[in-house]
Amino acid sequence: SVDFSGDDVEAIRAHVARDSARYADLVAERIVAAVERLQDHPRSGRVVPELGDASIREVIHGNYRIVYRLRHDVVEIATVFHGARLLRLD
Predict the structure, then answer these.
(1) pTM for the whole thing?
(2) N or C: which end of the chain has fewer CB within 10 A?
(3) What is d(CA 61, CA 44) in angstroms, rounded to the nearest whole number?
(4) Within 13 Å and on the Cβ side, how many CA atoms surround 5?
């Protein structure tokens, strides 16, 4: 299963919508689809290079990094953010 609140995606959608509501919806839909694929392929992401912890992984989707933690059979989405920003897990 996937544990995902979607707050980060809504913030991304709001930011992108300043320029284009249509593109904002498309970006959000694609990020959510990438998250949903993790349910079937939880180990498809790479280990986050900054952390080096095999249980914390990420998938890159376009300009965005989807960082997640694997706990047994559960994928916990930690954060979704623009790749130009620094990783923060606080």
Answers:
(1) 0.88
(2) C
(3) 13
(4) 6
φ, ψ of residue 59 to 5 degrees: the values are -120, 145
Which residue is associated with the tokens 């047994």?
72
The answer as to whether 78 is a domain residue is: yes
Q: How many domains does the chain have?
A: 1
> Dihedrals φ, ψ of 37, to 5°?
-65, -25
pLDDT digits (tens, 9 = 90+) for 16-35: 999 999 999 999 999 999 99
CA 30 to centroid of chain Cα atoms: 10
Grouping H, G, I as helix, E, B as strand and the rest as coil, residue 75 is strand
Domain containing residue 12: 2-82
Q: Is 87 inside any structural domain?
A: no
Q: Which residue type, as a one-letter code, is found at position 64?
A: Y
